[in-house]
Amino acid sequence: LRSAEKELLPGFHQFEWQPALRNVSSSWNVGIIDGLSGWMSFVDDVPAETIARRFRYDVALVSALKDLEEDIMEGLRERGLDDSTCTSGFTVVVKESCDGMGDVSEKHGSGPAVPEKAVRFSFTIMSISVRADCEGDAVTIFQEQKPNSELSCRPLCLTFVDESDHETLTAILGPVVAERKAMLDSRLILSVGGLLRSFRFFFRGTGYDEKMVREMEGLEASGSTYVCTLCDSTRAEASENMVLHSVTRSHGENLERYEIWRTNPFSESAEELRDRVKGVSAKPFMETQP
């Protein structure tokens, strides 16, 4: 009876990953967990002063897909596809967003003292397509009509932290990135429209503002001489030449530069070292894709 009762709860969906996700618990009845990564099942298990709350990424994606169940079935019908033959080959494109929420401090009341700033990491399901048979092209069966709307954007993680606090952000969003990485190599098996179907996910980090990108890629912030998030120009160079810029940065390169910053292999002075790494002064922890 207990398990039958659970099945009727909103937001409770059984699913499976093939192959199973690495470093992610296999239980699918996960509630809100402590953002600093532990697999807490219930909010009550967590001390009040914890600074982040989040859903497990795969559980949140399952919930989002189940919300779109009718749209998916409708899309299959509109495209004249037989839903009983379309059980695999679904591709889901997810847009990730992350931004500071500004000052959220408790101005009155007797709640716990919290840091002044908050950050929200969220995602939007941009499109779902299906390849009906091996030869054919993928057919789009769902496209988000308002991809930048608050209504299509689903919160994944809420954190009390200033978005320029690189270390804390790394600790909190690190596990999110690890889960995302694990999902790239696996397929989700989920019942949609009464049949088990398999989904692959692709993630695009396009919802970060520049400040956030700099934070996640370990670049110096707004006061930096190195003004560009995508190339190595200084302010002076950029002001003299608005044309000759090329996108030179990659996540891997930023990681290498951080290692140079950390180890200083050529025993250079702080100034020389800074010039060598061009404003990479922290470890990048999240690959952001334009």
From TrEMBL:
Signal peptide start-end: none
Record's GO cellular component, any one? DNA recombinase complex
Q: Where is the V(D)J recombination-activating protein 1 ZnC2 domain?
A: 226-288
The protein's matches in InterPro entries, at most eight in alphabetical order, are given as: RAG1, RAG1_pre-RNase_H, RAG1_RNase_H, RAG1_ZnC2
Q: What is this protein called?
A: Recombination activating protein 1
Q: Which residues form the V(D)J recombination-activating protein 1 RNase H domain?
A: 92-224
Q: Domain named V(D)J recombination-activating protein 1 pre-RNase H: which ranges? A: 16-88
Tell me the Pfam families matching this sequence: RAG1_pre-RNase_H, RAG1_RNase_H, RAG1_ZnC2
Which PANTHER family does this chain map to?
A: V(D)J RECOMBINATION-ACTIVATING PROTEIN 1, VDJ RECOMBINATION ACTIVATING PROTEIN 1 RAG1
Molecular function (GO) terms for this protein are: double-stranded DNA endonuclease activity; histone binding; protein homodimerization activity; sequence-specific DNA binding; ubiquitin protein ligase activity; zinc ion binding
Q: Give GO terms for biological process.
A: adaptive immune response; B cell differentiation; chromatin organization; T cell differentiation in thymus; V(D)J recombination
